[in-house]
């Protein structure tokens, strides 16, 4: 590094004063016992301090100047961050587009089909809509997250196994299946991902397919503008005929339909609260059932089962309690309805083994649905009579029985026609056949079903016609022409041939029915495959901007070599940005002339973002071209010297980046990504072991080997903490939670958490003590602030676990066996009277991490101390005395020891990192806290290793300098022997060229980035929506808070990336003494600039590869929404978060404060 490498002239002048690397790096005279950790200054014993007013003023001016490098660096990183934001926005607009929504509405007066072809002679009522009304009233009961296996009976369980808490808890449905099979229909209700409540409600009311980007709006629903059966019902019967109670997501979607007077909406996002919403629904449901004259449509949405799954998992005593409560309410509903009322009981989605949802695993998409009427619903023999069994889908055996399976959107046309409403215009679902085989008139049942199916098919065909008019060159338009459009024409042609014969054969009617059903199935399958319109020009624009930014970063790292953003570069970037804004409006007409762009949804905002990013990048390249000679070193034009990589470390870093990018070339690679990350880090450990074995100094070599082995061991330990994806199957065994069916921590993880809380501060103290840096803020923070924060966080985790366990045990057992502390512990669960205790504890811990610790650190961030020691002065021959001394007083001199001097930058920065560490672990599950504690130790091992290898490199270089000086001296003495002199000089040159095994900064930067991925997977996360730990939103917040709760979820999810980004400067700062040159300057920011840009470039290249494979090659892949799209969202989020942390926390706050304080105290200038 620059400040460790003096010039050759300086080395020649001080050849005799270079006994060791530490001596060159120490300031003035170093102590013999701790040369790298303390510095000494010898002064005459005087009562006054060494600094006067003039010195203080100079120090203040110097401190003011030191803000410039950090601000310049922050400006450069901010520009990169903004370009990344623009690139990701453009790509996301093209890749995660919402589907095109048509504003058209279906009308009763227009059935969208040719009535002259086939007219049912029985459907001649003048006041009918599309189909005669079959039921006057309907009751829709939504039990959120009601998984299919929760509904059906299970009588085939082994006698020696305990029955899961979620099975056989709805006996009312089992009783209906046994006693009233013709009045009860049970379906496996298959949802389309993403399986979040808002998207499911949209699908259940409009019959449309959601897009994955809609999942982000699950927490802030806006009014639904599409045609839906709820709005059609309100238009037909009146607003006052709809009564709603439950999840407030409904009122957000239908504010004009669900009137305030007839709605009882409750907040829905407090997943800790299992009872408040359900109790409110129960309170409103009772009076409504007693007086059905006040409503024609009753909707009740219960949330307790879903919240129980999120909080405790499905296999928990709480789940049994909630399902039994739902069973009681269903009994009341079924007993109170009249014969003309249709009852629909359904789940909007399921839940996985941990009680979460959002993805597309079987457990998440397979909900249950029960349809019941007191009058006969179906004659099962008709399905076989009309040979319809082949067109229907059935489940695998569940509980010993087989059930029908239908799509959730199939409920939309079914319910619409049964209630005498038109099918919503955008619907893609198919009518459920069983409900249109009228048991009252079996003779005409096939005609009823055929008319309903034909109406359904005509509505879907009309939707596609309108869509093609709006998007004539879209993929859906192509699919209509090439795949399924002719199927509808074929069915209509068959119907024309069949004519209006009321005596048409049943076989012919069944054939027509199958043709329409085939059309509906094929069209839905094609739409699911296409999913949404990909805007390729926008995707290309986003990927191109991101790739160009990577090229700029590479040029800045290798050629430009400036500190941050110099004024000349700043002017070029600002000029390019302003030019992009000015030309954006004029670029749109030009771009629209390109054929591939004409079908794009490119808007003015998109063009402005693209032009700003493009012209600012062009400004960067122009600045580089105009100032190449002044900013580039001569050897930089040589490609191999430009990067200056030692062969092995440079190759290894490039290999890691290349393979990391190739992970996105296969969905299987993404599924098993954590295994690749572990392989990368263990490979680094093996290569690092080889580096360490070649370190010259024996003590340093032993220490380096121990650190490498510790690094590899910790990697292996972290790999044992896993949460499995569905696709991993038997290749993964989950260990993060207590079991695969629970989302609560295990007891052993709590025991380990207590041990981790005791060990972590101790290890941090040992680490700082090794560099004599356990002074100042370190004493207060490590021994008190950090320790108290960890203890409080541990108490919160234990009380949270014990409270939930006590509550669940109490709910499932009798009071005779209750523990004396169970009332207190149970009261700490959601809604408990003692909840404030654990909430207060964790809030105090957050206060230490975010307020008390940072305030104390900001006041005095240094970990240095000064010790003054009076030592006797050696007198030559015992005769000479110091001047001014008395004849009787012993001769002494004062020595000032600066403890922690050699790690002045690193120790202070490390303290700030531990404060962020405390904040992040407070948002984690217990095992996640342990993982990050091990992760902090692993980061410490990495920076210690880099320091040892850097010292070894310096030592070998120093030996080469000494050998060259000796050779030149010998050559001057032995000038008579030219051959000997030439040989000596040549050997000295070779010695100078020799380099010890070392690492270029790119390799530790890449390793640190990969460690962020490792910590992410080890803290219980995966690149799936269902693995998001939503319960972290309620840590320290008893009820959902729309400001703090999202922050907690973000920190919980992206905390590992935050820690690794913030730890990055330690690669340069750790054990880097503030040794100034003759001008009083310490050179740090060139390496810090390169370090930050390297991490940004690595993450950007990974995202570019993700964009290329996900949006380019695999956007029609079967797993695009299940595997590729969630991984893209994770990488984009990680990149932006790391960029933001580097700009704000790392550079503007922590690094700036550390540099300024060290500069002020030691009167140096850091550039």
UniProtKB/TrEMBL annotation:
Pathway assigned to this chain's UniProt record: Glycolipid biosynthesis; glycosylphosphatidylinositol-anchor biosynthesis
InterPro entries: Alkaline_phosphatase_core_sf, Phosphodiest/P_Trfase, PIG-O_N, PIGG/GPI7_C, PIGO/GPI13
Keyword Glycoprotein: yes
Domain of life, per lineage: Eukaryota
One GO MF term: mannose-ethanolamine phosphotransferase activity
GO cellular component: endoplasmic reticulum membrane
Disordered: annotated span: 1-64
Compartment(s): Endoplasmic reticulum membrane
Biased segments, Low complexity type: 10-45
Keywords assigned by UniProt, alphabetized: Endoplasmic reticulum, Glycoprotein, GPI-anchor biosynthesis, Membrane, Transferase, Transmembrane, Transmembrane helix
The UniProt record lists the keyword Glycoprotein: yes
Main location: endoplasmic reticulum
CDD domains according to UniProt: GPI_EPT_3
Domain (GPI ethanolamine phosphate transferase 2 C-terminal): residue spans on this chain: 999-1145
Topology term for the membrane: Multi-pass membrane protein
GO biological process, one term: GPI anchor biosynthetic process
SUPFAM superfamilies in alphabetical order: Alkaline phosphatase-like
Transmembrane segments: 76-96, 536-557, 569-587, 607-627, 648-670, 676-693, 700-718, 746-764, 776-799, 835-858, 896-921, 927-946, 1001-1023, 1043-1070, 1091-1114, 1134-1155
Record-stated family: Belongs to the PIGG/PIGN/PIGO family. PIGO subfamily.
Alphabetized PANTHER family for the sequence: GPI ETHANOLAMINE PHOSPHATE TRANSFERASE 3, PHOSPHATIDYLINOSITOL GLYCAN
Name used for this protein in its record: Mannose-ethanolamine phosphotransferase gpi13
Organism: Linnemannia hyalina
Gene that specifies this protein: GPI13
């Amino acid at each position: 590094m620059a400040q460790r490498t003096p010039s050759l002239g300086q080395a020649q002048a001080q050849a005799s004063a270079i006994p060791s690397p530490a001596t060159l790096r120490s300031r003035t005279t170093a102590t013999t016992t701790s040369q790298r950790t303390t510095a000494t200054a010898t002064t005459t014993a005087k009562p006054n301090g060494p600094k006067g007013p003039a010195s203080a003023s100079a120090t203040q001016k110097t401190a003011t100047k030191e803000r410039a490098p950090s601000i310049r660096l922050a400006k450069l990183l901010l520009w990169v961050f903004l370009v990344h934001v623009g690139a990701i926005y453009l790509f996301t607009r093209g890749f995660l587009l919402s589907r095109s929504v048509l504003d058209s509405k279906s009308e009763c007066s227009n059935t969208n089909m040719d009535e002259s072809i086939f007219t049912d002679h029985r459907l001649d009522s003048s006041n009918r809509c599309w189909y005669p009304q079959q039921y006057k009233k309907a009751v829709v009961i939504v039990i959120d997250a009601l998984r299919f296996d929760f509904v059906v009976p299970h009588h085939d369980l082994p006698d020696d196994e305990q029955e899961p808490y979620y099975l056989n808890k709805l006996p009312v449905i089992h009783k209906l299946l046994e006693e009233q099979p013709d009045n009860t229909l049970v379906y496996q209700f298959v949802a389309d991902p993403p399986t979040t409540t808002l998207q499911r409600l949209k699908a259940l009311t409009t019959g449309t397919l959601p897009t994955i980007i809609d999942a982000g709006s699950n927490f802030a629903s806006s009014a639904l503008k599409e045609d839906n059966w709820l709005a059609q019902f309100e238009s037909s019967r009146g607003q006052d005929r709809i009564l709603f109670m439950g999840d407030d997501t409904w009122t957000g979607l239908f504010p004009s339909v669900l009137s305030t007077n007839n709605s009882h909406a409750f907040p829905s996002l407090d997943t800790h609260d299992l009872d408040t919403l359900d109790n409110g629904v129960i309170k409103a449901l009772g009076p409504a059932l007693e007086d059905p004259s006040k409503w024609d449509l009753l909707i009740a949405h219960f949330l307790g089962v879903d919240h129980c799954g999120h909080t405790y998992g499905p296999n928990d005593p709480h789940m049994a309690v909630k399902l039994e409560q739902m069973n009681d309410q269903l009994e009341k509903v079924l007993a109170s309805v009249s014969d003309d009322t249709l009852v629909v009981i359904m789940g909007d989605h399921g839940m996985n083994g941990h009680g979460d949802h959002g993805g597309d695993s079987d457990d998440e998409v397979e909900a249950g649905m029960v349809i019941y009427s007191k009058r006969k619903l179906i004659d099962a023999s008709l399905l076989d009579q009309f040979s319809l069994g082949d067109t229907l889908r059935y489940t695998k055996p569940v509980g010993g029985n087989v059930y029908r399976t239908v799509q959730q959107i199939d409920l939309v046309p079914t319910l619409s026609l049964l209630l005498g409403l038109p099918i919503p215009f955008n619907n893609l679902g198919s009518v459920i056949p069983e409900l249109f085989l009228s048991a009252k008139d079996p003779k005409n049942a096939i005609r009823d079903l055929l008319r309903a199916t034909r109406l359904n098919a005509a509505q879907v065909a009309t939707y596609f016609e309108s869509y093609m008019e709006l998007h004539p060159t879209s993929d859906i338009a192509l699919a209509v022409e090439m795949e399924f459009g002719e199927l509808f024409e074929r069915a209509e042609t068959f119907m024309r041939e069949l004519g209006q014969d009321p005596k048409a054969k049943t076989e012919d009617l069944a054939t027509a029915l199958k043709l329409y059903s085939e059309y509906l199935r094929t069209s839905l399958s094609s739409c699911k495959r296409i999913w949404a319109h990909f805007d390729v020009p926008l995707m290309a624009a986003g990927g191109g901007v991101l790739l160009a930014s990577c090229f700029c970063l590479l040029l800045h790292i290798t050629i430009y070599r400036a500190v941050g953003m110099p004024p000349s570069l700043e002017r070029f970037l600002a000029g390019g940005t302003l030019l992009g804004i000015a030309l954006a409006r004029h670029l749109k007409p030009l771009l629209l002339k390109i054929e591939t762009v004409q079908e794009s949804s490119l808007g003015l905002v998109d063009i402005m973002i693209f032009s700003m990013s493009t012209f600012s990048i062009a400004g960067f390249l122009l600045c580089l071209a105009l100032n190449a000679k002044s900013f580039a070193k001569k050897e930089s034009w040589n490609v191999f010297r430009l990067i200056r990589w030692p062969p092995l470390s440079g190759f290894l870093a490039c290999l890691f980046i290349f393979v990391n990018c190739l992970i996105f070339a296969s969905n299987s690679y993404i599924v098993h990504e954590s295994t690749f990350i572990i392989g990368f880090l263990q490979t680094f450990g093996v290569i690092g072991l080889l580096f360490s074995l070649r370190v010259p100094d024996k003590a340093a070599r032993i220490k380096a080997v121990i650190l490498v082995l510790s690094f590899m061991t910790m990697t292996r330990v972290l790999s044992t903490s896993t949460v499995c994806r569905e696709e991993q199957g038997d290749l993964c065994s989950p260990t993060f939670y207590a079991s695969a069916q629970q989302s609560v921590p295990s007891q052993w993880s709590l025991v380990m958490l207590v041990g981790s809380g005791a060990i972590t501060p101790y290890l941090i103290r040992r680490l700082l003590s090794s560099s004599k840096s356990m002074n100042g803020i370190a004493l207060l923070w490590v021994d008190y602030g950090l320790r108290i924060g960890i203890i409080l966080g541990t108490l919160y985790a234990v009380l949270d676990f014990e409270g939930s366990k006590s509550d669940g045990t109490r709910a499932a057992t009798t009071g005779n066996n209750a523990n004396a502390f169970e009332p207190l512990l149970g009261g700490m669960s959601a809604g408990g009277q003692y909840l404030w205790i654990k909430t207060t504890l964790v809030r105090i811990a957050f206060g230490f991490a975010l307020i008390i610790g940072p305030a104390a650190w900001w006041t005095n961030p240094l970990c240095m101390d000064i010790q003054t020691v009076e030592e006797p002065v050696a007198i030559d021959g015992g005769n000479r005395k110091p001047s001014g001394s008395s004849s009787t007083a012993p001769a002494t001199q004062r020595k000032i020891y600066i403890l922690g001097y050699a790690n002045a930058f690193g120790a202070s920065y490390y303290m700030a990192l531990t404060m962020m560490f405390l904040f992040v672990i407070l948002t984690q599950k217990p095992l996640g806290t342990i993982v990050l504690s091990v992760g902090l130790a692993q980061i410490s091992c990495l920076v210690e290793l880099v320091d040892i290898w850097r010292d070894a490199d310096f030592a070998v270089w120093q030996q080469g300098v000494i050998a060259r000086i000796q050779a030149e001296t010998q050559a001057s003495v032995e000038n008579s022997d030219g051959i000997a002199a030439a040989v000596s000089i040549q050997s000295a040159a070779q010695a100078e060229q020799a380099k010890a095994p070392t690492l270029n900064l790119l390799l530790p930067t890449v390793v640190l980035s990969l460690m962020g991925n490792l910590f992410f997977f080890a803290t219980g996360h995966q690149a799936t929506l269902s693995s998001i730990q939503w319960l972290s939103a309620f840590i320290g917040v008893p009820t959902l808070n729309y400001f703090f709760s999202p922050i907690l979820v973000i920190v919980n999810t992206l905390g590992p990336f935050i820690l690794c980004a913030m730890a990055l400067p330690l690669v340069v700062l750790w054990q880097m003494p503030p040794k100034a040159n003759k001008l009083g300057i310490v050179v740090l920011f060139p390496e810090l600039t390169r370090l930050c840009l390297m991490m940004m470039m690595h993450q950007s290249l990974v995202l570019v590869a993700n964009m290329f494979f996900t949006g380019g090659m695999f956007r029609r892949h079967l797993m695009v929404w299940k595997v590729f799209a969630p991984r893209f969202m994770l990488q984009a989020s990680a990149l932006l978060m790391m960029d933001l942390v580097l700009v704000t926390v790392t550079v503007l706050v922590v690094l700036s404060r550390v540099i300024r304080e060290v500069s002020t105290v030691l009167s140096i200038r850091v550039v």
